[in-house]
Amino acid sequence: METPQVKYLRDYRPPAYWVDTIDLNVELKETDTLVRSTLTVRRNTDEADETTPLILNGRNMELMSAMLDGNPLSEDQYQTDAEHLTISDVPARFTLETTVKIQPQQNTSLEGLYRSGGMFCTQCEAEGFRNITWFPDRPDVMARYSCTIVADRKKYPILLSNGNLTDSGDMDDGRHWVRWEDPFKKPCYLFALVAGDLFCLEDTFRTQSGRDVALRIFVEHENRDKCDYAMQSLRKSMKWDEEAYGREYDLDIYMIVAVNDFNMGAMENKGLNVFNSKYVLAKPETATDADFWNIERVIAHEYFHNWTGNRITLRNWFQLSLKEGLTVFRDQEFSSDMTSRPVKRIADVRVLRAYQFPEDGGPMAHPVRPASYIKMDNFYTVTVYEKGAEVIRMIHRLLGPEGFRKGTDLYFERHDGQAVSIEEFVGAMADANGADFSQFMRWYSQAGTPEVTVKRAYDAENRTYALTFTQKCPPTPDMADKAPMHIPVALGLLGRDGEDMPLQLRGESEPGPTTRVLELRAAEETFEFVNVPEAPVPSILRGFSAPVRLRAGYTDEEQAFLFACDSDEFNRWDAGQNLFAKVMLRLIRDIRVGTAPDLRPDMIESFRQTLRNTDLDKSFIAQALTLPTESELAILMSESGDIDPDAIHAARHFTVRTLAQALKSDFEQVFDENRDAGPYRVEPEAIGRRSLKNLALGYLGKLETPAVSRFIAAQFQKADNMTDEIAALSVLSHMDCEEREPAIARFYERWQSDVLVLDKWFALQAAARLPGTLDKVKALLEHPDFSIKNPNKVRALIGAFCGMNPWRFHDASGAGYEFLADRVIELNAINPQIASRMVAVLNHWKKYDAGRQALMKTQLERIAATPDLSENVYEIVSKALA
Fold first, then answer.
1. What would the DSSP string read from start to end of 230-284?
2. Among 245, 287, 813, 853, which residue's CB has the most CB atoms within a 10 Å radius?
3. Any idea where the Aminopeptidase N-like N-terminal domain is (predicted)?
C-alpha cells in the first residue's frame, strides 16, 4: 500500500471556495440511491483567484451528471479520482449541480448514508458526507441546507432531516416526499437524514422566552416502551442549559433517532440527533442503573452541542476538543447536579486514569489539540474528550463559576455562527475576566501527563508550613522537552483532629478559606503557610483540580488518615485507592518472589469502618470499596517494571477473597440492609442502595462455596430489575459452580429478542476469568445473534475479552493476541473505524515481559502486512511498532 498522507495543523489554510447554500434531493431505493445536490458557490478572494480550481471531496459514488450554472459539463471540463472532483475553470460565483448514485445497503463502514436494519440513516462526522455527494468536506465550510427526501411510503413512512419541516406530499407511484430546511448555517458533518418505519414519542418543552418546542424520539416499534427516560433526560437537559448557561434551543423541533448499527455513542446533527440505541432505550427490566446514568449523560451531551459545537463550530478538525472537551465538561456538570457530585467526579477520574493517562504514556500520545493526524477518526480519543474536559475544568477552577459564565457569555456573543479555534474560546475567557492564559495554552499543545512532586517542611517554633512543588512532564513521541504548565492545585490542611485548618499564606493579613487554589507556573515553587499550630496532613489536589500524577510522599498512616477524615470526598476516595493499590503492589512483589501473601489487619479494619459508616453516601461507599482493577494495577506496575498479568490477578484475587472471608457477616448484613423495599426507582438514594448491596454480593461471590453460589443464583432468579439481575449473573459468570451455566442459558432464553440485553450476555461471558474463556468467545463468534458488522456486538464480545479480561487476554501462550489480530484483519475490510479501536489494545506491548512483547509484536507486524490495510488501522499499528 502507499504510505498514507499525514495532515498537519501548521498547513491549515482557509478554503478556496465557500458554499452558501446546498439543496439536496435524495431518492432512496432498495438497490441504490440517487443524490442530486445544488450548490451556490463563491470564491474566497483572500485565498484564491481565477486560476484556482474547485476541488470537491467524494468517494464510493458514481457521478451521473454535473452542470455549472445550468450548463452540462463535458468530460474534458472536469477530472475525478477516487477521492476528488476537480473543475478547473469556474467563475467567482456560480451554481453547481451534480447527480450521483450511491449504494447505502453495501456501506458496512457506517460512514455517510447506510442501512441499519430496516432504516436508512447517516453518520457524517468526521468525513462521512463525502460518501453522500461531492462537497468540500471540511468543518469551516458552513452553508444553509435544504433537503428533499423521496422514498416508498409504506416501507419508509418517516422521513427526517435537519431543521424544520416545510413541505410534504404523495406521489402517484407509491412514494412520498418531504422537505426540510435548516435556517442556520452548518458544516456538512452536521447533516443528517433518517428514513424508516418508526414509532414516535412526542412531547413539548416551553423555553424561557415562552416558545414551545416539539420534542420527538423515534425508535423501532418494538422499543416504544423504552423511550420515556430519554425524553425525561432531554427535558432536564434543556432546562439545565437555560439556567446554567442561558442557552435556549433555537429550532421549532428537536428530534432523536435510535439506531442499532452505529460507530459512536451519538451524533449531535443540528436538530436531528442520531443515537446508538444503547443510549436511548431503557426500562427497569432491561437497563441497569449505569445504563440509565449513561442515557441521561449522553442525551445531555448531544443536546448541549447545539451551542457548543453546532452554533459555534470548528475551524478545522485539529480543534475537535473545542467542542468535545467543552461539551464533556458541560455534561459532567449536568450529571453532577442530577446525582452525587463527588461520585460523578470519582467516576470521571477513574476513566481518565484508566484510559487517558496510559494514552499519554503510549505511542498514540498527542496533545489535546493534535498537531497532526493521518485519519481523523482515530483522534476521537480520551485525550481530546476527557483530558480536554479537564482542561476546561481547570479554567473553571481558576476563574470561579461566575468568571467562567462571563467567559462563555462572551464566547457565544462573539462567535455565534462561526467556525473558530481553541484560541477564540480561551481568548473569550481571558478577555471577560482580565486573565492571562498564555502559559495555560500549553495544555493544548503539549502531550503527556505532568508529574507534580511535593516536599513538606513544618517549622514548629515559627508555626510555619512550607510546601515545595516541582513539576515535569515526561517525553512523548512528538516532544522530548516540555515547558512548565500552569497548574491549579486545590489544597487543604488537616489537623490531628481531622478538621480543616484555615489557610493563611505568608504576606496575607488574616486566614482565608480552608481550601485554597495554588497556581503552579514554574518548574519549582514554594508556598509557605503561617500560623499553623501543628504539623498538618496536606490534602493536595482536592477534587482532582488538575490532570496530573501526584507524588506527595504519603505514608500508609497518612493515607489511612485521609481516607477516614478528609472533608474533600474525592481526596478521601483517592487516599483509599492509593492505600489499597500500595498494599496490592506489595502483594504482587511477594507473589513474584514466592513469598506467601498476607493482608494487614489494619487494612481490613479500615475497609470495615468505611463499609459500616452510616454518615457516608452509599454510592460513595461503593466507589470507595471498589478496589483498583487489574488494568489499573497494571498501569501502576508499569511505572517501575514489566507488567505481570498473572501476579496482578493473583494479588487482587487474594485481596478480595481475604476481605470477603474476614468481613463475611458484614457483607451479609449490608446486603440485607440495602434490599429494595419497593418498586425500582432511578433516584440517587435507590441507586446508592443497589450499588452497595451488589458490591457486597460481589465480595461474597469470592467465597465460592455451594451456599454462596445458591444465594447468588436466588438473587438472579428473583430480580425484578436488570441492575440486580446482571449483577448476580456477572458474579456467577466467574464462578465454577453448577448454577453458572443454567443461569447463563436462562438469561439468553429470556432476553434473546432484545439486542441490547444480548450485548450484556456476550460481554459477561467474554469477561469471565475461568479457563476456556477464549474458546467460548470463539464459539460465540458463530452464534446466530452475533454479527461482526454490528459495532455494539464487536465491542461486547471482542472488546470485552481483549480490553476487560486482561488475565485471560494476556495468557502467556499468545492465543489472545492471535485472536485479536484475526478479528482486526477481518474488521479492516468491513469497518476500519472499529478495527482501529480494537487493535489499540496492543499499543502498550512494550510494557510487558520479553515473551509477551515478542508475541504481541508478531501480531502487530502481521496486521501491518495485511493487503489493503486501511488508513485507520495503519496509523495505530505503525505508531505502536515505531
1. HHHHHHHHHHHHHHHH-PPP-SSEEEEEEESS-SSSEE--TTEEEEEGGGT---T
2. 287
3. 23-190
Whether the CB-CB separation of 66 and 72 falls below 8 Å is answered with yes
Q: Is the pLDDT of residue 701 over 90?
A: yes
Catalytic residue chosen out of the listed positions 302, 324, 569, 725? 302
C-alpha cell at 613: 459508616
What would the mean pLDDT of 555-584 be, rounded to a whole number? 97
Query: Mean pLDDT throughout 583-602?
Result: 95
The predicted-structure confidence for 47-57, as pLDDT tens digits, reads as follows: 999 999 999 99
**pLDDT value at position 677?**
82
Contact 390, 332 (CB under 8 A): no
Residue pair 314/419 in contact (Cβ under 8 Å)? The answer is yes
C-alpha to C-alpha distances, 746 to 28, 502, 733, nearest whole angstrom = 41, 59, 13
Rounded to whole angstroms, how far apart are CA atoms 601 and 848?
A: 32
For the chain, percent of residues with pLDDT exceeding 70: 100
| 3 state DSSP class of 168 | strand
Q: Is residue 302 annotated as a catalytic residue, yes or no?
A: yes
| Res 173: pLDDT | 97
Q: Please identify which residue in the block is written with the cell numbers 486566614.
A: 511
Whether the predicted model's global pTM rises above the 0.85 cut: yes
Q: What b/e sequence results for 226-238 when a residue is b if at least 16 CB atoms lie within 10 Å of its CB, and e otherwise?
A: bbebbbebbbbbb
pLDDT computed for residue 358 by the predictor: 97
C-alpha cell belonging to residue 792: 455494539
The predicted pLDDT at position 1 comes to 66
List pLDDT tens digits, range 635-673: 999 999 999 999 999 999 999 999 999 999 999 999 999
pLDDT of 121: 98
As given in the structure block, the three cell numbers for residue 824 are 482486526
The whole-angstrom separation of Cα 319 and Cα 322 is 5
Using CA atoms, how far apart are residues 675 and 720, in angstroms rounded to an integer?
12
Residue 872 has pLDDT above 90, yes or no: yes
Distance between CA atoms of 329 and 308, rounded to whole angstroms?
11
The residue-averaged pLDDT of 9-24 equals 98
CA–CA distance from 228 to each of 282, 296, 306, 315, 727 (Å)? 8, 11, 22, 37, 24
- The DSSP call for residue 47 is T
Rounded to the nearest integer, the mean pLDDT of the chain is 97
Question: What are the φ and ψ backbone dihedral angles of 319, each rounded to 5 degrees?
Answer: -90, 15
H/E stretch holding 777: helix 773-780
CA angle 307, 313, 319 (to 5 degrees): 125
- CA distances for 377 relative to 103, 124, 317, 381, 873, angstroms: 22, 11, 10, 9, 10
* Contact (CB, 8 A) for 501 and 532: yes
Judge contact between 245 and 405, C-beta under 8 A: yes
Q: How far apart are CA 831 and CA 334, in angstroms?
A: 33
> For residues 177 and 147, what is the distance between their CA atoms, to the nearest angstrom?
10
413 sits in which H/E element = helix 388-415
Q: How far is CA 812 from the centre of its chain?
A: 31
Concatenate the DSSP letters of all residues of 13-45 into one string.
---SEEEEEEEEEEEE-SS-EEEEEEEEEEE-T
Average pLDDT over residues 721-734: 98
Contacts with 253 (C-beta within 8 Å, 6 or more apart), sequence order: 164, 165, 213, 214, 215, 216, 271
Give percent of the chain above pLDDT 90.
99
738-767 residue pLDDT tens:
999 999 999 999 999 999 999 999 999 999
Q: Is 528 strand, coil or helix? A: strand
Domains and CATH numbers, the chain: 1-106+142-189 (2.60.40.1730), 312-551 (2.60.40.1840), 569-881 (1.25.50.10)
